[in-house]
């Protein structure tokens, strides 16, 4: 897969969650982009860009504390200051995708010497790396592995006791798992936060619904990030309820817009949309790759964050926006001083 927008300008990461500065999450900046305009506003003003009957499709997955210290010797490294295991997507058969990382203070860096074998985890846990993913060899070191996780008792309770949120780089300080949950989060399962919904507050959702905007839930448990150019999206578990499929189909039939909140919502919805644009209920694991060549069938707009220029998510975003509009958006955001990363500002694309 070749990135469709290689000339995008990256944005500096936000130093932390906006609520740490005493402001509400919906005070974050929002760039509303159409083919004719780019409006610099706040997330709280989202309703001004939507109309009664428009549908917001939201992801109800909650974020796991999915970073775990590796205990004891492993691949020549030792102890919690040596390696971290990032617990990624759940796979059929009880397997998991995982990534080993080098611990660096509060963050982590790539580790290029993973190999088959077992690593010890806190509280009597254990992960056995079985085979590289994807199965077809790629150039460079293997990043992701199919693994078997063995933990005592309930995995969610074990993660709550021993895990921490996945972090990259060197944030100024660690943030609690609550900072990585959205207002829609009800079902734990994401390795990393579905961060496009982070700007919503209960007050904003109430105002939108009161104005006639429809909120339609689905589920997609996010895997670990794919920041590397050329790396295909991982398989991810999803569920699109029948009621959500019906709401989207009714909106499209009435000429209303369907705006996905995040690339995760796009991927889940497009997985169950047929060639006529009709959405069906469904659940399972999706391996759908969305690119500008493939396009989208059910989505008319997208709320998203600002991704690194090499991120694989940008192929999907370009499928919604078109490469030219996306490039203009990033240039505008850069000029206006927007921030990226999971705690950053937001982008509403209405192509």
Structure in words:
With 351 residues, the protein is of the alpha+beta class. The chain is built from 6 helices and 20 strands. It has helices spanning 155-162, 202-210, 242-253, 263-271, 313-321, 323-336; strands at 29-33, 38-42, 55-59, 61-63, 67-69, 73-74, 77-78, 83-90, 95-104, 107-110, 117-121, 125-133, 144-150, 187-190, 214-220, 236-240, 258-261, 282-286, 301-304, 346-349. The strands form 4 sheets. The protein has a 9-stranded mixed beta sheet. A hairpin with a 3-residue loop joins strand 11 and strand 12.
Helix-strand string: EEEEEEEEEEEEEHEHEEHEHEEHHE
Whole-angstrom Rg: 20 Å
What is the name of the CATH topology of the largest domain? QueA-like
So, CATH architecture of the largest domain?
3-Layer(aba) Sandwich
Number of strands: 20
Strand order of the main beta sheet, please? 2-1-20-19-17-3-15-16-18
Task: Note poorly predicted spans.
Answer: 1-6
CATH superfamily of the largest domain: QueA-like
How many helix segments? 6
Summary of the model, kept short:
With 351 residues, the protein is α+β, with helices and mostly antiparallel strands. The chain has helices spanning 155-162, 202-210, 242-253, 263-271, 313-321, 323-336, and strands at residues 29-33, 38-42, 55-59, 61-63, 67-69, 73-74, 77-78, 83-90, 95-104, 107-110, 117-121, 125-133, 144-150, 187-190, 214-220, 236-240, 258-261, 282-286, 301-304, 346-349.
